[in-house]
Structures are given as C-alpha cells and as structure tokens.
Write a structure and sequence with these properties.
By secondary structure, this protein is α+β, with helices and mostly antiparallel strands. The protein has four domains: 103 residues, Sandwich (Immunoglobulin-like), CATH 2.60.40; 153 residues, no CATH class; 110 residues, Immunoglobulin-like (Sandwich), CATH 2.60.40; 110 residues. The chain contains eleven helices and 31 strands. Strands 12, 14, 16, 17 and 18 form a five-stranded antiparallel beta sheet that branches. It has a four-stranded antiparallel beta sheet with strand order 1-3-6-5, with no helix packed on it. It is globular. The N terminus is likely disordered.
C-alpha cells in the first residue's frame, strides 16, 4: 500500500510565506516597468469645429496588456454617430507595445464651448482615467464655408415665369456629378470616387441605377445612404447635395476603365405663374386689386445621369521590382509580436505578424517568413482592423500563426520583409520587422495533489482502476455487439444481392446540375424575398467555384489574386470583368436594402451563366 507523507502545518506556513514573498518580488521586478509605460489619454481630431459637423474622439491606451471595464462617458452636448475599436501592436527595443483605441464619431448639435469628458478603464489591474479635452463649436454649416441655408430658396427657384424654359431650368439647378481623387493611378493604388446629386429645386428623387465598378475592388466609405442633404457651394452658387455613392476603389488590372453612370429619377414640382421674373412678390395694401397671378402646379419627370469618367490604370514599374513583391501599394510598417515567455515544449505558440499603414490593406497577403527548422505552421488566421471612413484606407492587418513549440533550445525567427510600392515617392520600398528569439524550456511536470494519491485503504487498489475496468468492459461489450450485428447484416445483404438486379452506374453531374446545387439556397432566398441572404449565397457560390475548381487557398480568395489567377488560367478578360461585376453588385446590394425582385432575378441569371462558363473552361483545361 502506497504511503503518503504529508507536510506538517508549520512547514506549510513557511512555504506559503516564501511563495508570497517570491511572488511579490516577481511582480515588482517584472510588472513595475510595464505599469510605468502605460499611457491613457484623449485625442480630439480637430478644434474648433462647426455646428452639425462630425468629428472623432479617440481614447488611447498605450502599453496595456489587460484592459477591462472600459467605460465610455456620456456625451450630453453631442450626438454619437459611430463607435468602433482600433488596435495595433509593435515590437522593438526588447519589448512589445500594444496600442488600443476606442474611437467615437460625434456630431456637435449647437455652438458654444464644451468639454469632451475622459473615459475610464481598469488597465493592468489598475483603475485609470483619461484626460478631458475642451472643444469650441462655432456656428455655420460644416465644411461649407459658413453658407447660409437661406441662400437657397427652392420655392423661388421652382417658379416658372413667362419665357422660362423647363429644360434650361433643370440643367442649371438639378444635376449629378461624379468626383474622383485622380483619373490616373497604378494597379493597387487607392482611388476615391464620389457620386453626388445637386439641387436648388423643389424635387423628389430616387436612385434607379447604381454604378457598377467593374475592374476594381470596392470599399464602401458610408454605412448607409440616409438621404439627409448637406449644403455645398459650386461655381459660386449654393446647392443642397445628397450622396449617391462614396467608395474607395483598388484597381485590379491595368487598362482604361469608364465608370458606369449613376441614374436618378426625379419629379420636379414647378409652379407656373404669369408674373415676370424680375418682379418682386411683396404683398401690400396697394396691390390687392392688381391682376391675379393665377399660379398653376406643373410636375416634370426627368432622369439624370452622371457624365462618363475614364480612369487610366497603369502597370506597376518593372524596374527595381523585388522578386518577392506581391502587390502591396501604399505606405506600410511591419511588426512581429513574439509569444509571451516562458515557452515550454509542446505549448501552443501564437506569433502575430501585423502590417499597418495606409493603402490596399484589404488585398495584402501574408509576408514571407523563414521559419526555423522544427517549426511547422499552418495557414494564418487573418484579422483586419481598418478605418474605411478615411482616404486612403488605413489601419492594420494581422496574420496570426499557431504551432506547437518544438524541442528545447533557442529558435531565431529572422526579420520578416514585405516589399511594397510607394506611389507618392514612385519607388519600391521594403517594410522590415525585428527578428525575435524564442526560448523553449522543458515542459512542466504535472503536480499531483495529495488527495489524488490517496488509495482505497480497505483493498489497496486505486479507485481509478475500477473506473478504467468499467470503461474496458463497456468497449468490449460494444465490440461484441457490433460483430454479431454485422454478421447478421452481411447475411441479409448477401441474400438481397442474390435476387436484386445489378445497380446502374449514375453519370457524374454536369455543369448545369452543379450550378443548380450551388445556387439552390440563393433561389430559395429569392422566392422568400430575402435580399441579404440571396446576395450572400451568390457570393458564396462564386468563391466556392473558384476555390474547388483551381484549389485556391482561403487566404488567396480575394478579388486581386482571383482575377490574376483567372487571367493566368486563360479565362477571357470579358469573363473576368463579369466575375468582378457580379461580386461588386453583391457587395453594393448588401449595403442598400431596397433591392427589387427584378434586379435579383437578373443577377441570378447572370451568375448562372458565369458559373457554367467557368466550369466549362476548367474542364477544357
């Protein structure tokens, strides 16, 4: 019988006291510098601002390894329009620095002097508060040089005086414009496009055709197009403006692209009068007996279109292009965050490689890393932390690698490199991370509690033996049952085969059957009039076809790599453009809930034809 020697009460007290002292010393040595590095502060994007203007407040935590109970204050003087998180990690000078930001988009409701209050949080176990920031709000219309809304008299502009031409009146006071940040760019270089409606008339409008942006990867810059007008001055005149669409585009291939027009159907409510245009309509006692005006309402329907705009996409320079260049365009930094120490043999190790900066972040692929011998990693998990509301697109993209810690020793992960093209300086650069060293120590042996060593005093047999015996008996019983059952089933199967006719081999499914299966859920969503599910199912069918047909890794399933792959496989350019157009239409439709059955049916027909075409090409190749 196993005898367990238990320490006496005095020995336990001494050990406990020593553990407390050692733990305290460890916390003072290791945690003291970390706490000293923690910063918690508030930043306001601009001041002063204009009434009804949006602005950003950032609550930033630097060097916080543990952030809990983050409390955002109440903004009694402002309206909250948006709230999101943003975090980055960097490694340098022997330690990792994490930065976390809580970003709130506020709207100033009135003029005056206010204070943006600070936030509070428990950071690394300590209650902390950020600073308050004073802000001034002045009167006026945001971003419009203090234009007075009274400058736009829609009722007066909508009067049709004798001799006025309706067509000329509309051309001067109601139109659509498309604005681009540039008309010439490189492949992968961000481009901002804004479709906007301008009006000085009494009008009701509805978007009937949204522009298709074929040949580009699209990032929406607006969450919802709510139809709230703003005031803008153009060529010396003030207009009410409404956003039709505002996006960032990332060209996928070189060439010349004409942006499709946006179409808006409008009904202008004119009032026809026989009063001359230069006569002021000021009521007075002297003109009560004057000739009446005889006003008459006239509704005029018109369809507005944006003028065609051509974007020239240039190929990236081949001179001095690095051999491992993978399409990154912008300005970037590269950091590698090591796993926390200590690392024991067999531990699950996670290493984060983060690309931060501005550019085509959403299209970036993992940087090439030369892993040391003994380290076997799978495809990384990808996390994007992107601020889509700014141009060019900025934020970070993190690739997290997981693997089992190898045998004991030091393992050096050399510097990671990611070449990119900087369109501002028009040259190739390389983002470089620091190298890191992993110290792998022997695994920690499991400490067995005293209670686990206590055995049955009566029999001298460990109780776990009984449990193990029961499990073994259950397994044996299951095996015996399966053997008997299988024998009976086999006899019945042999008897059935003796009288049954030989099975007929079914022909493999053709492209039409495969496409029908892929779009089955999309058709059900269409019948149930569920646009979000419909468009997601169409997207899924396209990506699944590309993935299964050409064995594409999940990390490569994006427009940039897919269009390059299709081009390399000899897929016609027209088919590639249709592929991008269907994906773009799905992306756009998910942002706009007012989709008609006719548009969904047309897209389904287009997707069916495209999928059949891709499958036929894959079979021929």
């Amino acid at each position: 019988m196993l005898q367990v020697v238990k320490p006496n009460h005095k020995t336990k007290s001494i050990r406990k006291f020593l553990h407390i002292i050692l733990a305290g010393l460890f916390c003072c040595i290791c945690c003291g510098p970390l706490l000293a590095q923690v910063k918690f502060y508030t930043i306001v994007s601009e001041s002063p601002i204009t009434a009804h203007q949006t602005f950003q407040v950032q609550y930033v935590v630097e060097g916080g390894n543990s952030i809990r109970q983050f409390v955002v204050p109440r903004f009694k003087d402002f309206e909250v329009a948006e709230m999101f998180d943003y975090s980055t990690s960097s490694f340098g000078q022997g330690h990792a620095l994490d930065t976390y930001s809580k970003i709130i988009v506020l709207i100033a409701s009135r003029k005056g002097k206010f204070t943006v209050p600070g936030a509070s949080a428990i950071i690394n176990g300590k209650q902390m508060h950020s600073n308050a920031v004073p802000i001034a709000v002045k009167a006026g219309v945001p971003g419009m040089n203090n234009i007075n809304p009274d400058d736009i008299d829609t009722e007066e502009e909508s009067l049709l005086h004798p001799g006025d031409d309706i067509k000329d009146k509309i051309e001067k006071n109601l139109f659509l414009r498309v604005e681009t940040s540039k008309n010439s760019c490189y492949v992968g270089e961000p481009l901002m496009v804004t479709y906007k409606a301008y009006s000085r008339l009494n009008v009701n409008s509805q978007v009937v055709k949204r522009p298709s942006l074929t040949g580009f990867s699209v990032m929406e810059m607006v969450d919802a197009y709510d139809g709230k007008p703003e005031i803008e001055k153009l060529n010396g005149r003030s207009y009410y403006t409404n956003l039709v669409r505002k996006v960032q585009l990332f060209p996928l291939q070189e060439g010349s692209y004409t942006l499709d027009p946006a179409e808006v159907e409008s009904v202008v409510h004119f009032v026809k009068t026989n009063e001359p245009a230069n006569k002021k309509r000021t009521p007075s006692l002297n003109n009560l007996n004057a000739t009446p005006m005889y006003p008459m309402a006239v509704d005029h329907r018109t369809v507005l279109r944006t003028a065609p705009v051509t974007i020239t996409v240039k190929p990236l320079p081949t001179a001095n292009q690095p051999a491992d260049f993978s399409g990154a365009v912008g300005q970037f930094k590269l950091t590698v965050k090591p796993p926390p120490a200590p690392i024991h043999t067999g531990d699950l190790v996670k290493i984060q490689v983060t690309v931060s900066g501005s550019g085509n972040l959403s299209l970036l692929t993992p940087p090439v890393i030369k892993w040391p011998r003994g380290v076997d990693t799978a495809e990384p998990a990808v996390k994007e932390n992107i601020n889509k509301y700014v141009f060019p697109l900025s934020g970070s993209k993190t690739f997290e690698y997981s693997f089992a810690a190898p045998d004991t020793g030091d393992y050096v992960i050399p510097v990671a490199r990611m070449p990119y093209y900087d369109p501002k300086e028009k040259k190739y650069k390389t983002a470089v991370s620091d190298s890191i060293t992993m110290h792998v120590v022997p695994g920690v042996k499991k400490v067995v509690n005293d209670a686990e060593l206590v055995v049955n005093q009566g029999t001298g047999i460990d109780p776990r033996v009984y449990y193990f015996s029961l499990i073994v008996l259950a397994i044996i019983g299951a095996i015996v049952y399966q053997v008997v059952f299988l024998r009976k089933s086999k006899k019945k199967e042999i008897a059935a085969k003796a009288v049954a006719p030989a099975p007929v081999k079914e022909a493999p499914p053709g492209p039409e059957q495969i496409v029908t299966g892929l779009l089955k859920n999309a058709k059900l969503a269409l019948q149930a009039n569920q646009p979000p599910i419909f468009y997601r199912e169409v997207q899924q069918a396209l990506w699944q076809t590309v993935r299964d047909t050409w064995q594409v890794l999940p990390s490569k399933l994006n427009k940039y790599h897919t269009t390059q792959l299709l081009a390399d496989k000899g897929v016609p350019a027209e088919t590639i453009r249709n592929f991008s157009a269907v994906l773009d239409e799905c992306e756009w439709a998910l942002y706009t809930p007012d989709q008609s059955i006719n548009s969904m049916e047309a897209l389904l027909e287009k997707a069916e034809g495209l999928l059949k075409e891709l499958m036929e090409m894959s079979r021929q190749s």
